[in-house]
Specification:
heterodimer, A: about 400 residues, mainly beta, Cathepsin D, subunit A, domain 1, 2 domains, 5 helices, B: about 160 residues, alpha+beta, 7-stranded antiparallel sheet, globular
Chain lengths: ~400, ~160
């Protein structure tokens, strides 16, 4: 049933031409299906997957890649080399050396070349977008400073997805820090004139962007709409990824509270009368990770030791506060992750400890419309960056 | 080296450190904090001391703060990172870098996700949170925590 929906969407997405100039129309659909299931590696819990179509820039040769994780916590489209059959043009630096990226994530890094594609999502299109091709055999030697960031996530088994669609509030994955050369550069981008690569500065327009920000319209953010998930979880569920905020009848803010963000993309949360900083909303996080056992009174699981495992479902309440002072409380439940059926891939009661504050992962999205507004882009709720729900 | 608990132990650690180049911090002697500062091309921002630990804060050139907790016996028992980029884990975790990689891989098997995580190995715990442009994490050696110090106080 769910697979059928994905295949139908795939077919629909491939039909339109990928040529230049085809992005000007606004009459097409500004949305596509999200499926929460075990994902292409078959072991994901609370992973929101969709498809992305990449085309050789200006040409009609395209490929639709399914099983791409929707991640409002990172920026940029990244696809596994092993999932990509299309040959895309390599992006080079000013001296003609291939650009390769070491993109940093919480639990490791993705290493691979920057290539250029026309990116199609729903009927929206962004032309000549820098994307990362993860784990390309053409760039198999990982430089030592990149390897020092942890473990590579360059294969399906390591990544758990065929790619990542990063639609965070940031326009680029690195931003101004990567424009400057020298010690302050955080080392995302490398130039690889040979098998030996060196860190390099990259102008903003050549960095890996949130592709939504480059659409001709509906380019100020995204909405993720998911149904509620009952206690105990389900094998799969599906929702919508909608492009644009307040640009079409299907993406109006409505009663959603707009919480603006600081320069790091964070806001704060009040729990038990204490205000915690560095809170964030992230569809790519698979639970609600907050505080610790001492503060919450919730025991850690015996097996899944980075989750909470109360013996009965526990109701929790916290109040988020945007930088703009707007407050919005959230009531959520915490359940026993060890007791979830192994077949369950979507569960709202998944929660765990966090060394600081709150990380509102996919369970926040169940039963809600969550808006992610891109930095500097005007919307009906003000200029991004903000999250709203 | 990782279980010093007396001042004689600290002396031994210091002597070992002077005999060989200090490589990395967690579990290493207090002197390795300076090696980290050099490797991170950072500046020592502040150093505070109480009866339970000394805290050295380094600001790496990338803007990421690295805080190293040194026990009264002169051993780095915890490292915290906070900022826009991940630190050079090979440097700041030193001999425990492979423990880190192993623990993360273990935490990611079975119930997979990409969010905040807590992973542990033999006498090694790492907790990580945040997202690109705002990372936060801490790694510590439980057997070396000063008496009465809760892991949550390492921040």
């Amino acid at each position: 049933m769910v697979r059928g929906i994905v295949f139908a969407l795939t077919a629909a997405a491939v039909v339109p031409q990928c040529g230049p100039g085809s992005s000007t129309g606004t009459s097409g659909q500004n949305f596509q299906t999200i499926t929460v299931n075990a994902g292409p590696a078959g072991d994901y819990l609370n992973g929101a997957f969709t498809s992305a179509t990449v085309c050789v820039p200006g040409q009609s040769s395209c490929q639709t890649i399914s099983g791409v994780l929707i991640d409002t916590g990172s920026t940029g489209l990244r696809v596994l080399s092993s999932a990509l059959t299309l040959t895309l043009p390599q992006q080079n630096d000013a001296s003609g050396s291939p650009l390769v990226e070491c993109a940093q994530f919480l639990d490791g890094f993705t290493w691979g070349p920057i290539q250029t594609a026309d990116v199609k999502l729903g009927s929206e299109q962004a032309n000549a977008v820098p994307i990362q091709v993860i784990g390309s055999p053409a760039f198999s030697v990982i430089p030592a400073p990149c390897a020092a960031k942890g473990d590579p996530e360059d294969t399906l088994s390591a990544l758990g997805a065929n790619g990542i669609l990063g639609i965070a509030t940031f326009k680029q994955d690195c931003g101004s820090a990567c424009v400057a050369a020298g010690a302050s550069n955080p080392g995302f981008y490398y130039a690889c004139p040979s098998s030996v690569c060196h860190e390099t500065a990259v102008p903003l327009q050549n960095q890996v962007p949130n592709p939504v920000s480059l659409f001709a319209s509906d380019n100020n953010g995204t909405v993720i709409q998911m149904p509620s998930v009952a206690a105990g979880g389900v094998v799969s569920t599906s929702g919508m990824l909608i492009f644009g905020i307040g640009t079409q009848p299907n993406n109006a803010l409505g009663p959603a509270k707009v919480l603006t963000l600081d320069a790091q993309g964070n806001f704060s949360t009040n729990y038990g009368g204490i205000q915690y900083q560095s809170t964030y909303v992230d569809s790519g996080t698979n639970g609600i990770f907050f505080l610790d056992s001492r503060t919450t009174g919730l025991p850690i699981c015996a097996m899944s030791t980075d989750f909470y495992c109360p013996t009965t479902l526990q109701s929790q309440t916290a109040t988020n506060r945007g930088v703009n002072g707007v407050m919005s409380s959230v009531t959520f439940s915490v359940g026993n992750v060890d007791a979830l059926s192994g077949r369950v891939a979507a569960a709202s009661e998944v929660a765990g400890p966090n060394p600081r504050g709150f990380a509102w992962g996919l369970p926040l999205f169940y039963g809600r419309s969550v808006f992610t507004a891109i930095e500097g882009q005007p919307t009906s709720g003000g200029t991004g960056p903000y999250v709203a729900y | 080296m990782t279980k010093q608990s007396t001042s004689i132990g600290w002396l031994a650690a210091a002597l070992l450190a002077s005999a060989a180049p200090a490589s990395g911090s967690l579990g290493g002697p207090a002197e390795s904090v300076d090696a980290d500062r050099v490797k991170l091309q950072g500046a020592l921002m502040r150093m505070t001391r109480n009866d339970r630990f000394a805290l050295h804060e380094i600001r790496a050139a990338s803007g990421t703060l690295v805080r190293e907790y040194v026990s009264p016996t002169g051993v780095v028992f915890a490292v915290v990172w906070e900022g826009p980029a991940l630190p050079d884990f090979r440097q700041v975790l030193g001999d425990h870098f492979e423990d880190y990689r192993h623990a993360v891989r273990e935490a990611r098997t079975g119930r997979r996700g990409r969010g905040a995580f807590r992973a542990s190995g033999r006498d090694f715990v790492v907790e990580s949170s945040g997202h690109p442009r705002a990372f936060f994490g801490r790694a510590y050696l439980p057997s070396l925590l000063p008496q009465g110090l809760q892991p949550e106080e390492i921040r």
